[in-house]
Amino acid sequence: MPELEPLSPLIIEPAVRAALAEDLGRAGDVTTEATVPAGKTARAAIAVRKAGRIAGLDVARTAFRLMDASLKIAVQTQDGADANAGDAICHIEGNARSILSAERVALNFMGHMSGIATATAAFVRETKDTSAKITCTRKTTPNLRAFEKYAVRAGGGVNHRFGLDDGILIKDNHIAVAGGVAPALDAAQARAGHMLRIEIEVDTLDQLAEALDGGAHAVLLDNMDLDTLRSAVEMNKGRAVLEASGGVTLETVRGIAETGVDLISVGWLTHSAPSLDLGLDIVFD
Description:
This protein is an alpha/beta fold and 285 residues long. The chain has 2 domains: 9-115 and 274-282, Quinolinate phosphoribosyl transferase, N-terminal domain (Aldehyde Oxidoreductase, domain 3), CATH 3.90.1170; 125-271, TIM Barrel (Alpha-Beta Barrel). 42% of the residues lie in helices and 19% in strands. It is built from 11 helices and 12 strands. Strands 6-11-10-9-8-7 form a 6-stranded parallel β-sheet. The chain has a 4-stranded antiparallel β-sheet with strand order 3-5-1-12, covered by helices on one side. A two-stranded antiparallel sheet has the order 2-4. Helix 8 (205-213) links the parallel strand 8 and strand 9.
């Protein structure tokens, strides 16, 4: 897997601040303040309850540090690594109130991101020894796209476009309004600068032929069966990047990869992957 570039603190900190503010509300952590003495210290560990791929350590660390900069935080692994059930992947030491008040925000981010990374890693394993790469989509949680796409990378996948502004993807509704594949491509090419790539969605091999003749950089093959995908790869002859999409599951992804497509997009990774079960335990030496 390529080296995992970390998320920028400029992205992490505002999101974590907002999450802490949401959780603490107007009165703060009234439960912890009522039950834990102000000067009490503690040592805690983030533990993995179920095996999976880790993502979001920097985000969790930011939650604890924003709550209390004096907390001592030590990580025992790294994003993109696999952990076994029972592994302690991070230790936090210091003011007990601070640890407990930041716990849920830290675990919410990490559990969600690690769940996406774990799911992505499973799809990547299923496509081992093929040329296909697993990619995500824009079906992400509002305001968490950067975190979720990072988690896909931690799982060994690659990222599709991040937003409407960093690539032209002509979908079926664009084609319908524009009057067809060729008019839609012509209009996009007239508008796009030389740095902006154009992908177009097609449902049939006839549409694929139009897209290739029109010079599309990439073609999204929507809900095609395996025989049609193989025919599409043969027609393409390497001219455009081919992306298979639509209802991809762990049970079907291997067959799709073996058709020879370049990318397989899986929206489920970011909109439905279950969180990885993580917990915070107080450590008694």
